[in-house]
Write a structure and sequence with these properties.
The chain has seven helices and no strands. It is mostly helical. Helix 1 crosses helix 4. The relative contact order is 0.19.
Length: 93
Amino acid sequence: MSLDNHYLGDSSFEAYSKCFTKEWDNYNHKEDLLKLVNNNIDIARPIAYHFRDSYKKWMESQAPVLDMQTPLECMKTENGIKKLKTSLQRFPG
């Protein structure tokens, strides 16, 4: 199932990302993760929450939900970023 047409919008994703602020404040890999996501804190917070110390491995792994792209590859295009955000919002909390 492609996520291309399921993005709920920036304001929805920003609200979702802010749910992870407390965990982000105590996260040990902020600087490294922010570099991987082009300093996009809204994307970094849920990744930190869901993947903790495994964030880098996840960022480099192909994902069926991302059409077999890696999250790092998705960060290179606007459409890829939307797919990545949509996939993050679908993770169980």
